[in-house]
Amino acid sequence: MNRSSSSRRLRAVYAACAAASLLYGSAAASAAPAKGEMTVERVVMLMRHGVRPSTKFPATPVGTTKDEWPTWNTPAGDLTDHGADGIRRLADYDRILFASAGLLPASGCAVPGTISAWASGSSRAIKTGKAFLGALQPGCNVELVHPADEDAEDQFHPTGAEVAIDGDKALAASQAQFPKGGLPAVIASRRADFAALQRIVGVPVPTASTLTATAGDKPDMKGGLSFGSTAGQTLLLEYLEGMPMSQVGWGRASKADIRAILRFHPVKFQYETRPAYVAQRLAAPIITRMIDALSGTGGKVTLLFGHDTNIAALGGFYDMHWTMADYPRDDIAPGGAIGFELLRDKAGHRFVRAFQQAQTMDQLRALTPLTLTAKPSRSYLEIPGCGSAKTACIMETFEKITRERLAHPAP
C-alpha cells in the first residue's frame, strides 16, 4: 500500500474514533471538566531532526574502534532518505491527530497562518521540517522559516551575550548535581554499559572523564562518558537507518546492547545542558516562541525543528522528565518531540498539558506505517509545580512560571 492510500485509510479510522475522544482525552485536572468536555485550541511542538549519519567521518577518532565505522551514502550530519521517510510517517499520524482535534482540515490545505513552522539553520533540521510539513499538508507549500545557515542561528543555538552564561557558574551548577562521590561515582554507575561498549568497539575504552568550564557556554564533558554518548548515538543511527545487523556495531551489537549504551547520551545532557542555570538560558529563545504561540501569537499548530540539545534544554527549563518509546529515561529519539497542548473547557477556562512523542526503534527501522494499532509512543508529562501527567496545568499558572524563569533565570 502506498503512503497516499495509507493516509486515506488512516483518516477514516481517526474520524471514526474522534467522537469517542480516543486521541485527545480530557485534561482530568481536579477542577477540570469531565472527559470529552475539553477542546484542543493549539499545539506547540519541538522536534528533533530525523535519522542522520554521524556529524563527522569517522564518527570517533581513529584507534578508538577495532574496525572502521561503516560508510554512509549521505553527507556527514545530513538527513538520510530513510530518515525523511520516518519523519513523513510521523506527520501522517499527526495530520490525522490534528484533524480529529479540529486544528487542521481533514483534507485539503489549512487556511494560511494556521501552521507556523521554524527550523534550525542546519541542513538536517531544515530537511526534517520540509519532510514533515510536506506530509502534514500535502501539496500546500507551508512556509518553513529558518536562518540562511548555522552561522546565522540565534534561537536553536544561541551563544555569547544572547544567553549570558558564566562558564564557572554553569560548571558549579552541573557539579551540584553529582551524586555522592562526584564524577567518579557517575562513571562507576555506568560500569556495565562501558563493558558492553568495549566489547562492541573491540578495543579498550578508557572510562576517565572530565567536566570543565567553557567561557560563555555550557560545561564540556570529555573522556569516556562523552565517547560513550557519541558511539552509542552512532550505533543507534546505524540500527534506525535499517543497516543489516552484520553492519550494526560490526555485527557485535544487539538491540539490547544499543539500548544499554544509549544511557550515556542522557548522562551527558544531564550535566552539560539540563542544570537550571544552563537550561533556562539556552532554552530561552525557543521557550519564548513556544509560550507566545500558546498565548495566541501564531497559528493553531506551531512546529519547531531542531536538535536533541534543544529538547534537553527545554526539559531542564521546566525540570520535566520523560521516556520516549523504548529509549532510556530523558533520552531524545531522532524525530522525537516534546510539546504542549492548550485546552479550553466549556466555561472558557484554559489548561496546558505537556507531552512526548516518538517512534519506537523498530517502527523507525522498518518505516512502519503508524495507525491506531501501531501508534508511536505518545504520553503526557508532569510539569513540576504546575500539573502531573494525569492532570492539566492552568494556563495562567503555566505562563507565570514560564515568564518568571525567562525574566529571572536561575542565578
Sequence-ordered SSE layout with sheet pairings:
Blueprint: H1 3-18, E1 39-48, H2 81-100, E2 115-119, H3 123-136, H4 167-175, H5 182-189, H6 191-201, E3 209-214, E4 217-223, H7 224-240, H8 255-261, H9 264-272, H10 276-282, H11 284-294, E5 301-306, H12 308-318, E6 337-344, E7 350-358, H13 361-366, E8 377-381, E9 393-394, H14 395-407
Parallel strand pairs: 1-5, 2-5
Antiparallel strand pairs: 1-6, 3-4, 6-7, 7-8, 7-9
Helix pairs in contact: 1-2, 2-3, 7-8, 7-9, 10-12, 11-14
Descriptive account of the structure:
Strand 3 and strand 4 form a beta hairpin. By secondary structure, the chain is of the alpha+beta class. It has 14 helices and nine strands. The termini are far apart. Helix 1 packs parallel to helix 2, helix 7 runs antiparallel to helix 8 and helix 7 packs across helix 9. The strands form two sheets. Strands 1, 2, 5, 6, 7, 8 and 9 form a seven-stranded mixed beta sheet that branches. A two-stranded antiparallel sheet has the order 3-4. The chain has two domains: 266 residues, Rossmann fold; 110 residues, Phosphoglycerate mutase-like (Rossmann fold, 3-Layer(aba) Sandwich), CATH 3.40.50.1240. It is globular and about 60 Å long. The N terminus is likely disordered.
